[in-house]
Amino acid sequence: MEHCPLKPEGDTRDHLVVIGNGMAGCRAVEELLARDPARYRVTIFGAEPRVNYNRIMLSPVLAGEKCFDDIVINDADWYAANGIALVAGDPVVAIDRAAKTVTTRGGVTEGYDRLLIATGSDPFIIPVPGKDLPGVIAFRDMDDVDTMLAAADAGGDAVVIGGGLLGLEAAHGLSLRGMKVTVIHLMPTLMERQLDEAAGWLLKQALEGRGQTILTGADTAEIVGNGKVEGVKLKDGTLIPASLVVMAVGIRPSVALARDAGLAVGRGIQVDDHMVTSDPAVLAVGECVEHDGQVYGLVAPLWDMCRSLADGLVEQPTGYRGSVTSTKLKVSGIDVFSAGDFSGGDGCEDIVLRDASRGVYKRVIVRDDRIVGAVLYGDTADGNWYFDLLKKQEDVSQLRDLLIFGQAFAAGGGAADPKAAVAALSDDAEICGCNGVTKGQVVSCIVKGARSLDAVRGTCKASASCGSCTGVVENLLALTLGDDVQSGPKTMCKCTSFGHDDVRREIVAQAMRSIPEVMQKLHWTTPDGCSSCRPALNYYLLCALPGDYVDDQQSRFVNERMHANIQKDGTYSVVPRMWGGLTNPTELRAIADVVEKFNAPMVKVTGGQRLDIFGIKKEDLPAVWADLNAAGMVSGHAYGKSLRTVKTCVGSEWCRFGTQDSTGLGVKVERMSWGSWMPHKFKIAVSGCPRNCAEATIKDFGIVCVDSGYELHVGGNGGIHVRATDLLCKVATEQEAMDTCAAFIQLYREEGRYLERTAPWIERVGVEYVKRRIVDDAAGREALRARFLYSQSFSQDDPWAQRADGAEAEHHAPMARFIPQERAFLEEMGA
Amino acid sequence: MTTAEWLDIGWVDQIPVRGSRTVQVEGGDDIAVFRTAEGKVFALLDRCPHKHGRLSQGIVHGGAVACPLHNWRISLSTGEALGEDKGCTPTVPVKIDGGRVLICRASTLKAAA
């Protein structure tokens, strides 16, 4: 870069010398020129041999989205046109405050009247062995970018140390340039200073999805290599190969020059509200300064500082009051925004919106009706709006209900009334982000006849996904129809506005793993649900996560918690399993012994061909089960929303009319399906001929044997509303009958609503639907069967045996026993 | 510890969260001791005002328990049936001292009589 003439003849103006040709130095000059272009003669010294460019855009240059010319802020013409002398590539190495001169490394000495230090910051290099090896660089200037581009051309592995803003942008760029990138981050969460744990996790998932390896909680021990970098060794001994190592662990204010000149320096060069240092002739601005104890490493504070600085230079001082900062990550396709304080704590309220289908996480932190922080992931469109409210300390109590939905909703006029806010929205305002439905589309679908929330969800899909816009859609219904709105879909219970199907879909879509998580994500209105929703949620999670979900005993109805049927007097009845209704002397003897030993007042044969022992006390249950287990019997699940019994007739083995081995098939079916949890109880029967002695046509799944094979019937019920089965199909072999049974059970398990028997379920969805899924779709049938068998591999574990072994003894034993007669003797029971 | 006024029945941790344990009282009904999600402990006679269901076997949610027999909801703090149902179960004062659960002796005797 050529030097402009330093001192034009006859110029008697004060000389402003600027050390630093970066963003702060040049911005300060721009602000000054905007106020009084003729006031100072200006000379700028820059360490880099180039004109002023936008440093924060280096990431897009590395990523190949921009070139250097695109990020130049002021080109050579700007310096010339404004009479600014630029000394580029020859850094200032000394300041003589007494003589009021600066001296460059090249030996140029220049006098000043006012001096502005804008030296920015230096990348922090962690002091590990190997840090000076060729191939270890920082990410600070255009030279670093050139080094990275050259390395990327050669390909291979790169390691980025530091999972903050800069490190991730470097990793993204290198990855796009074809390098295999590993990010090493000391902390457990990426960008932990800007993001909370939830957003950090989403970010990590996204980056890993793009092929980067992200190691969190990883501490660098040394950089290894012989003559050039070859890899990075972690403290746990892991060695990661690398031909390029980028250190992006942080920056430090560049203060050496100022400190050598004797200026007051803390963490940065200390300045007052007018950016004046301890020497009135010397000013400082940007990342190199410390103002009111704060040091900034982001660009926004710099604009504020430069304004105050220029006001002071033209003697109209205003004063800088510090900055609140916000952050956006410049990784294309991954939108991250954070501002303010998101650590939470006393008096802070979190407003959270999660939309798994769009990969959106929004969290706004409010304290005393003011926004104090915001973290946005996936949808950062409202970042600036939240930031603005935060900076202005605006009272958001009137906006609170709609705040999280963003400016379009919350500021849509009449903010106190959500209905008015919705009315004020324009027709093209997006109502449902999940399905991209605008207000106009919702209204038109209501006008065309969708008169309920369910109907709107069914037609234009608004609010059919995450449900966060349900309130808005309901308001649109009310606005459009007045009193004609039909009541919404039947909700699960009073704790939620969602119906069963919505909840199940979201559990799967958002991969939810616990009842509290469902309640949190689906905005439950009660802290821990009720006796209607808790058992349902427990079942839905159990069904969605076989083998994985930890059953919540406190969300089970008493019978399933106690593995026996509670009776009106508080005692229990016990039904051991008898496969297919078959029994033998050993089992019968054991049952007889139990009846006598525990004084059971009654034994009865049940409608499902089992023996039911009545009047067993809660405390005696484990002992009863132990005795029954000893005779080879397991729980009959007569108490559960699960397979009850498989009822059979004697079939071809004995019966003169029998066409197939119905008892044998019944035993096989029961062995396959016992122990599975279902939306409601489930009964099966196998009849050996069309005389149907096992009453298979009023069971949930009924098999009627015929000469040519097996008729499979579904959806029967012998309860209050007797319903005969629908014929599902006819199959030729036992195996096909078993496979179809498994597939049918799984379809019911996955799609039946909790406490909905197969009969009302089939009335609701239609037998034709079930036929399509089970009969017509062979691949679908097989997949359902496979899912059922997989799930069964975790559920066929006798709960009685576990309890007899002492598991969950607290369910059976009292906590203490109090005997008033003996002067209040109190016995503690241990457990 | 047990005194003339209070019966020490065990550690708070022995009661499952959102669950219940019982204290057997010879010659009377059990006392059901509940622990809510928020960690509060309540004691009621283990008998629903409706058909005498064992409240200790019900689902605890919020500050209420649902009777296992017919799903009546009973307030843990007042013993009153909630919603449309009418009826009341005697309550027993509880206090926690150093992690121990103490129930009122007089109320226990009265409730179980």
UniProtKB/TrEMBL annotation, chain B:
Please name the SUPFAM superfamilies in this protein's record: ISP domain (SSF50022)
Question: Residue ranges of the Rieske domain?
Answer: 6-103
What InterPro entries does its record include? Answer: Rieske-like_NirD, Rieske_2Fe-2S, Rieske_2Fe-2S_sf
Per its UniProt entry, which superkingdom is the organism in?
Bacteria
Q: Spell out the CDD domains in the cross-references.
A: Rieske_NirD_small_Bacillus
Could you tell me one molecular function GO term of this UniProt entry?
Answer: nitrite reductase [NAD(P)H] activity
Entry keyword set: 2Fe-2S, Iron, Iron-sulfur, Metal-binding, Nitrate assimilation, Oxidoreductase
**BP term (GO), one:** nitrate assimilation
| Record-linked PROSITE patterns | RIESKE
Cross-referenced NCBIfam families, in alphabetical order? Answer: nirD_assim_sml
Put simply, this protein is called Nitrite reductase
